[in-house]
Amino acid sequence: AEAYEQLMEDLQQLEEDQQDLAEQLAEARAQEDDQSAEQAELWEQVLALAEAADQGARDAVSATGDGTGWRSSAVARMTRFGERTAGVLDAVRARDAEASLERVDRAVRQGQISTAAIDHELTRGRPRGESVPEGVMLASELTTTAIANLEEIRRLLEALREGQQSESEEMQQLAQQLAQQQQQLSEQQQQLEQQVQQMEQAIPTADGSASGSMQQAGEAMERAGESLESGRSMPGEGHQRDAAGRLQSTREALQQQMQQYQQMQQRTQQMQGGTGSKNEDTRDGEQYSTQEIQIPSPEEFQTPEEYRRALLEGMEADVPEEYEALKKRYYEELVRQ
Average pLDDT of the chain? Predict the structure, then answer.
């Protein structure tokens, strides 16, 4: 538990340091001419549109429900559109106008393919008794709106791309000066990434999402460093903010995994008829363990037979259906010890 708490503190500190570095660029830019301030405002507009487009594409997929009445190829094309809009959002967060424009073009093309697939669901022949799914009209509307948002993003990015090519000499110098600090943060990230991986290996309920987010944070930091070294402050700041967001996602994933583990342990003990621990907190009728989470090792039993017997009794115990997968991973971890 102590190692977990320390890791969470270190991740939060790194996130704050990364945000602070991005703020230095933003504040310096705000003190420049009106053109720099206008660019920053345009990027905020682009970001809002990118978020709306991505949300719309994902909502369109959700409108298909369980897929009943839909051709799998149509759902696959809509899902692909969602992947494209997510790529646009990533590039926009990095404030990279060139990359954003390239991804917008690909996303619009995929959106048009998705629209054609959705329209076909309205007109294609169906077996007797099969009606058009209720979500078709909603999916069509959401996809059309998402494409319109992407088109508006394209218009704004054209203006931003021209502005990005003419950063002031002062901003270029500041970016290059901050490159060394960015490198130091990257080195810290690499060290913490190993700790995140080790922590997930020790949590039976871990799904690798924290390590994945941490890896993405490292990639964003690397791109930030490259932008800063070349004197490109705007994309550098964007990559920095993207990295900070990935670090936050890492902390949230670890926290969720630990909570799931604690809940699974508590439920498993209750299903086994255990009396629980004195260190329990009751909230809204549910009990949560506040004791330090530890996985028992074979050395805690006098004989191997006792250890195997305890494992078998635990594995055979009934738990709520939603905890079956977690219980399985928990005991698999014990067996590997």
Answer: 83
